Amino acid sequence: MSSNRYLLFFSPDLINEPITYRMVKDFDLMINILRAEIDDTGGRLMISFQGSPQQIKSALKYLTDNKVEIKELNEYVHKDADRCTDCGMCVSVCPVGAFVIDKETWKVGFINDKCIACGMCIDACPPGAMKLGQ
Amino acid sequence: MKRTVEEINARIKKGDAVVMTAEEVVDLVRKDGLKKATEQVDVVTTGTFGAMCSSGAFINFGHSEPPIKMSKVMLNDVPAYGGLAAVDAYIGATEESCNGRPDYGGAHVIEELIAGKPVKLKASSRGTDCYPRKDIETYITLDTVNQAYLFNPRNMYQNYAVATNSGERTLYTYMGKLLPNMKNATYSSSGQLSPLLKDPNLRTIGIGTRIFLGGAQGYVSWEGTQYKTNVPLRNGVPAASARTLAVIGDMKAMSPDYIRALYMNKYGISLAVGIGVPIPVLDEDIMRTCALSDEELFAPVVDYALQSRNRKPIQETNYAELRSGTLTIKGKKAKTSSLSSYFKARQIAKELKRQVEEKEFYLSQYVQSMPAERAIRPLDVHSREEVEK
After folding, report:
1. Could you say which of A39, A61, B267, B387 is the most buried, measured as most Cβ atoms within 10 Å of its Cβ?
2. Do residue B179 and residue A92 have CB atoms under 8 angstroms apart?
3. Total domain count for chain A?
4. What is the residue range of A128's domain?
5. ipTM summary value
6. pLDDT at residue A134, rounded to an integer
7. Residue A101 contacts B, CB cutoff 8 Å
């Protein structure tokens, strides 16, 4: 079992495709939709897949065949350690608890795996240490 | 047990002084008791690293050929105040850039100068017989200017209210991003490490006191603006924002590790300033307050949804609860965030301890004590007759 996060881009003509239903029904994946947005340029879905590596691979192939653009999310938000002052402003605005203060050192840690790329921390960080990743 | 600043300095000179951080003496007093701890320790070091908006720098640029009496002064497109002699200017930390970037301002210019980076100076003037030049554009660094010193009218607040938001929309404030329905609360004090909480009546801190300022040795220069004393006390310590200090120090000796430009989204710019004050352990009374822990230091919680100067505290909390990460407000749990860095505050207290131990930093007896009593005045709209006496 592995769990991966992806950002999927749909062109407007794909919006009516029941993509997430296919992920569950045809590939037996456990899915969790982290974010979903639709505007006139198309749709963006941030999604996490849980399943065997083979199932995930087949699902990604299905998506690519259906012209869904896929970006694997390794690091959506990046913490600039030189800029960060370890104040902890990010801690209370993050909805998923991706920032944790080490009560021994009082340094602020960022758990990338928990991040759902909502961007709440980016405009809340006073020294500007949180940035969009590549 | 009593000792004087002179006696402590003599011990520092001999290498005999016992120095501990304000955090370390919390545990020491719990373990050994007040009397023994007072006998043992000569100096307690404190630290704070937080947003201090009322900060800025005086700079003297030197004279150009031909000379100019600068009236409009810009540093990296951030206006500085030039209404002084020909080549003196003051750049305020919160001044915003004129180039359309809301997230760049005076604080960034100050940080970049301290980091050794070049800054573009642009100045203009109407020209006079003695200062004929009308404009200049050049680059400066801390090395090219004559003087550059921080002169901050209000720093190191003795305590500060905790901010929350009962409203239905997110508020963007100088206390950071406040989520709706009291989902979070922000605070800004290093609590048990905070300089003015550890010497609450300023028995050892006054005009002329040598301090750690932005990595350099600076001085307390005056009472800070909005200095006040008429606030509730808990354990003999103000449980709301009270005293403040004006401080001064040479930017050429500062480090970007302890000065950081901040941008509070949709609010504006501020400057995080790192300050440490060594407190001489004169007697048991001063050691008692030096050893107060986060559990014993209190702050009011204020609702920023009320846009008034007369916000009444919703409740009181202490720094141990704030630092736990969760604050219960009216039965609901709010996540807490600190705006000041406890990590940096501790780093400063430890660095100051090292400097005192290694004879790089001597304590000072102040020249003049701070006001014992002071109330704060509001600004109301009056006619001339109402204020004229």
Report:
1. B267
2. yes
3. 2
4. 77-132
5. 0.94
6. 53
7. yes
